[in-house]
Amino acid sequence: MLETLRKIVQEVNAAADLESVLDVIVRRVQRAIRTDVCSIYLLDPQRERYVLMATQGLNQKSVGRVSLSVEEGVVGMVGQRAEPINLEDAAAHSAFTYLKGTGEKKFHAFLGVPIIHHRTLLGVLVVQQKLIRKFDESEEAFMVTMSAQLAGVIAHAEATGSILQISDHTKTEADRKFEGVSGCVGVAIGPAVVMTPLADLDGVPDRKVDDIKAEVATFKRALAQVRRDIKRVGRSLAKRLRSEERELFDVYIRMLDDNALAGEIIARIKEGSWAQGALKQVIGEHVKQFSMMDDPYLRERATDIKDLGRRMLTFLQESGPALSEIVFPENTILVADELTPAMLGEVPTEKLVGLISVHGSGNSHAAILARSMGIPTLMGVVDLPYTRVEGLKVILDGYSGRVFVNPSDDLIECYQEVIREEDEVNAGLEGLKELPAETTDGYRMPLWVNTGLIADVARALDRGAEGIGLYRTEIPFMIRDFFPSEQDQMETYRKQLEAFAPRPVTMRTLDIGGDKPLSYFPIEEDNPFLGWRGIRVTLDHPEIFLVQIRAMLRAAEGLDNLRIMLPMVTSVREVDESKRLIAQAVEGLREEGHNISQPLIGVMIEVPAAVYQVRRFARRVDFISVGSNDLTQYLLAVDRNNPRVADLYVPYHPAVLKALQFIVLEAHKENVSVSICGEMAADPGGAILLMAMGYDVLSMNATNLPKVKFALRGISFERARALLNEIIVMGDADKIQVALHSRLKELGLGQLTRPAIPD
Ligand code: PEP
Ligand code: MG
Q: Whose CA is nearest to atom 9 of ligand 1?
């Protein structure tokens, strides 16, 4: 059964559009369980009706014509109960409705299973039989497995279908909505520009060309280069290969013939596609055909075709304009399968208004960078057929985590109003720079910033930051091809320390691993967030740690505003070892004649084990800083990068709030100051609660700093304490957020948390 299942899923995946997807499913399922009928009813949410979309066994003429309301029939019951219904004689059931014109009268046995994708009901998969009998357990299990596996494919095909209709302009399905998670709040409206890593065939967007002749010529040039390249590789390997292996290169050359792949690609270009898109389509079709073959040798040939496709794409991309030459449209919304920090730098800042990533989550690194740059961002928009949206207008709503493709004029107007409101709020905050973050009853709260890029420093100073609470030193490491030298690091760190002196700068030691890989130091792990990351890596590599510490100490020479912070600490031993290495670096540099002062040393509280050791840590260090991003992920067992569980990643979870309060109380028992540098401090509501808990410093992205300052200046410390007392006893994260929002509204601070968004 497993093999049948695998084959069906593979074939369905290879189908070109929704119609073919559904058609393959009904045909193959009917055959697999030898039943008389297999049909799919898809839910039309607007009309609240199930429409018969494909069938094998019922009257074909009724496809697309027959429908039933969500409360009607046994199909309706399957949807309402969200569970399989297995009946030996459906007609005898009280809920049964006969669907006219389908010819289903003669069928008795009925098994319907719901098709559910991400908690959303897409439709119902039904099998029927003439006999009066119950489908057996293995058949039921097969159908449930089938439906669960196919739900994603159907959702994707539905989305792609509607996007295709939009781009063809034959049908105007407006306001097509996709959900993701917020990476940076704000609203953006503009054309989508899809960016893909080089030589990624699957990621090539669809594009039309007007000058077909020129496009064919471009393709032929690339083709000639690939032919030459393959011949060259073949020649250079000739001596080392057996003759049958050498033949592979001849096969490649033959595949590139005008009568083979090349001819098919040129035909697609002549239909108006750009060369890269035509290449993707043709290669994709051949790869799918080969991968479905039973013969393992032939199946393997799919790899050869893929390789050939990638080679051709590389030449096509080289012959196209370089990224730096691309003219990005005004209000570009950059769309990528996996947004990387490097991509953010490709688009001129004045043209870039929004970012959308199919993968990743609100706490991925790219999102954190986007926040520091203040660009509205959506992450984890998993159902967006991103290669199909090139050039289409989109609205990105970073507040509610939604993106609308091809929005209607009414919706655009609504969102333009939201942007105007936002501009008003921001204009009102501009005068705050010189003012302290002081509550109405005179409680002073230091506001620091999180940095990583050099550009962050100017923005942070411009917004009135009083120190750096977290400098993510891994960012300069991530944008290089090898470990930076001590001198390199020293120069980079000096810029941060100098710009802020005499204000304090907290430099975190290298925090790689988890979702922060270095291309030149790959860490392959099944479970990277529970693996080798943060201080674990650097203590295993004292040579890397020591070079970094020496660079930090040298950079602070004469400035004396350095605080060194250790990430991902779980045990006292790690703190002691790190302190020993820092002392060794201080001593070594002094011996070399440098005038080094002892830096302040702190630990981050990011893992649950550290929460219960705060006092022990506090006795050993000068300060404590809470990394609430990781702490939330580990306390709730929710991967901060996984869009599937993004709605479970809730910093206002009662357990997280309790832990945050416990940490401050414990650290203060040892008279050690506690800051927080996770994203929660950047949320005005969160900042009020953290101040009330007793946090000594709040460190956040520069973008949100003025909003947080405005919020703290709009409340008394006493009122903040009362709010905390009200909230800390609540047991439900949603209720906590609602309560927080309504209290902020009462204080006239409602506009800071979220402007009114149309639904
Ligand atoms: C955190 O985990 O809260 C934190 C500040 O560190 P990072 O987001 O870089 O992991
Ligand atoms: Mg962290």
A: 472
